[in-house]
Write a structure and sequence with these properties.
Layout (H helix, E strand, L loop, with lengths): L1 E5 L7 E6 L6 E5 L3 H6 L5 H22 L3 E8 L7 H24 L2 E6 L7 H13 L6 E9 L1 H17 L27 E4 L18 E4 L9 H11 L13
Parallel strand pairs: 3-4, 3-7, 4-6, 5-6, 7-8
Antiparallel strand pairs: 1-2
Bound molecules: 3-methylbut-3-enyl trihydrogen diphosphate (2 copies) and magnesium ion.
The site of one 3-methylbut-3-enyl trihydrogen diphosphate (IPE) has 11 residues, from strand 4.
Length: 255
């Protein structure tokens, strides 16, 4: 198998093409199916979101043994504001509760937490908690957990383009020098390597505006399991399946 090896001290630097069957360094997950999981039990959708939130810690904790250094999870999309006010408010309150209850454990377990997405639309109290958790865990390196809240790939590219254009207008950036290495520096994910594997639970085979730029060459796995049923064993199975894939990046194996 051909896999790109990256220089670990600089995640964005692709150093060479190598023959490898190692696991994914960065896994991104579209955590879908909470609502259906609850509804199939005759319970309200928020019951499913609470069950889903409980899964997150187990999946984060499973990462080091699987060789996964970066885990990025889609928690709330720019499109999810279309849901009922009850569901949106319930999700925001769940995020606050989750941060409060998990902050100390995340810090002590070596998890570095980052948030991506547009914070402007979020409540000030939640933004403060997100900033504080990022600061609290800033020195951790065991697992890099990135949580996407009010995140949309198109919105991210639009916001990045705006800042890029501002730099051009200010004379800080020469338009002739813009290439495909330039835009990622303006994305929310500028400090992360691209995902190697994107998993979506719940059987939907779409990406719903997640990491559009970054996943250009990701491997995808769409699985039927609903997110609240996504156990570390299921996760391990998907990660093991990745090792059998042939990533050619447009090239030819053994060329
Ligand atoms: C994913 O589960 C979680 C969020 C989008 C916040 P859903 O809430 O989309 O669950 P389904 O797809 O309706 O079952
Ligand atoms: C994607 O799931 C967003 C998150 C998992 C946070 P959705 O359930 O919102 O996506 P669609 O509506 O099925 O495309
Ligand atoms: Mg859904």
């Amino acid at each position: 198998m051909i896999k790109r090896a990256r220089n670990k001290s600089d995640p964005s630097e692709v150093t060479t093409l190598v023959d490898a069957s190692s696991g994914p360094r960065h896994v991104a997950i579209i955590m879908d199916g909470n609502g259906r999981w609850a509804q199939s039990r005759g319970r309200p959708r928020l019951f499913g979101h609470h069950a889903g939130a409980k899964r997150v810690r187990e999946i984060v904790e499973a990462c080091p043994d699987l060789g996964v250094e970066y885990l990025t999870i889609f928690a709330f999309s720019t499109e999810n504001w279309k849901r009922t006010q009850t569901e949106v408010a319930g999700l925001m309150s769940l995020f606050r509760r989750y941060i409060t209850s998990q902050a100390r454990d995340l810090k002590d377990n070596g998890v570095r937490v980052r948030f991506i997405g547009d914070r402007v639309k979020l409540e000030a109290s939640l933004i403060k908690m997100m900033d504080d958790l990022e600061a609290l865990t800033a020195d951790n390196t065991r697992v890099h957990l990135t949580v996407a809240i009010n995140y949309g790939g198109r919105d991210e590219v639009a916001r990045a383009t705006k800042r890029l254009a501002q730099d051009v207008a200010a004379g800080k950036l020469d338009p002739d020098g813009i290439d495909e290495e330039t835009l990622p520096k303006y994305l929310d994910t500028c400090l992360l390597p691209d995902p190697d594997l994107v998993i979506r639970t719940s059987g939907e085979a779409r990406i719903s505006n997640f990491l559009l730029w970054q996943s250009a060459y990701a491997e995808y796995e769409f699985i039927e399991t609903l997110w609240p049923d996504f156990s570390p064993e299921v996760f391990a199975g998907v990660v093991e399946g990745y090792a059998g894939r042939d990533r050619r990046y447009g090239g030819v194996r053994n060329a």
